[in-house]
Amino acid sequence: MSEVDDSVAPADPSEATAKLLSMFRLAPEEPLRTTEDVFVGRTVGPETPRVYGGQVLAQSAIAASRTVAEDRPIHSLHGYFLRPGDVTQPITFGVERMRDGRSFSARRIHAYQEGRVILSCLASFQVPQPGLEHQERMPEGVPAPEQLPSPRQLLADVDDPRARRIAFGRPFDLRYVSEPIFLAPAGAREASTAVWFRTFGRLPDDPVIHRAAIAYASDYTPIEPILRRHGKSWTEPGLAAATLDHAIWWHREARADEWLLYTQHSPNASGSRGLACGRIFDRTGRLIATTTQEAMIRLPE
């Protein structure tokens, strides 16, 4: 968790939603000597000195969706983070139309900055079809988000730039069911985390926007169950953590401006890497999405 300029922290929550939507507006660009569809996006009101991973995942999903018929929503996205992104530079998205079948479409997306790939993704789209259906159940006894404090309430009086970034720099309202590890380790060493999230403001009705917003938020907390299991916090001296890859499967439609429960657990950490798996539910208990993420986590010996 690196320091950022406090001026990027929006005083008005609706401003954060406006900035999120601004990042989702990708400009088409005429490709040069390529058959790819090309789009350009930017970072608006950066959360960190480097491009936040969830942002470029969401933008990749939007870029790929622009090349597919509207009746084929994105159902999976697998991305590898290859280089850190610079928040001061635009991001160019090249989308390769790998396949368009009767039911499925596949796209490869590369996100570039200054000619170098920072993220490589594969995305799949499908015409909605009936079939077998089951899902894992939503955990029982989880406090409602209205009963939980927001990071703004928890950290508003903490004089620390990292706390200000968490409290005021995000376009999502996160309510922790688990004990937060913003500035100090949790009491229990459990390899799990649960948070409620939604955007601060209302989003358009476009399903592409809501799926992209869910992808955006899904990168916030998967590293936390790994740290919690080992009694660490984001302020651990010498901690170096970065997402290596991230995958998300969307199962059902949901609005990202309504409360969603994100449960995560870490089945393994080894070789300076940690793995986390997540489930995203709506308030009625429907399983909306599943995620997996592997991260590099290094600590001084």
Automatic annotation (TrEMBL):
One family name in Pfam for this protein: 4HBT_3C
Domain Acyl-CoA thioesterase-like N-terminal HotDog: 50-126
InterPro entries the record matches: ACOT8-like_C, Acyl-CoA_hotdog, Acyl_CoA_thio, HotDog_dom_sf, TesB_ACOT8-like_N
Keyword Hydrolase listed: yes
CDD domains linked to this entry: Thioesterase_II_repeat1 (cd03444), Thioesterase_II_repeat2 (cd03445)
Keywords: Hydrolase, Lipid metabolism
Signal peptide: none
Lipid metabolism among keywords: yes
Domain Acyl-CoA thioesterase-like C-terminal as annotated: residue spans: 157-297
Any one Gene Ontology molecular-function term assigned to this protein's record: fatty acyl-CoA hydrolase activity
Any one GO BP annotation for this protein: acyl-CoA metabolic process
Reactions it catalyzes: a fatty acyl-CoA + H2O = a fatty acid + CoA + H(+)
Subunit description: Homotetramer.
Protein family (similarity comment): Belongs to the C/M/P thioester hydrolase family.
Protein name according to UniProt: Acyl-CoA thioesterase 2
The organism of origin for this protein: Rothia kristinae
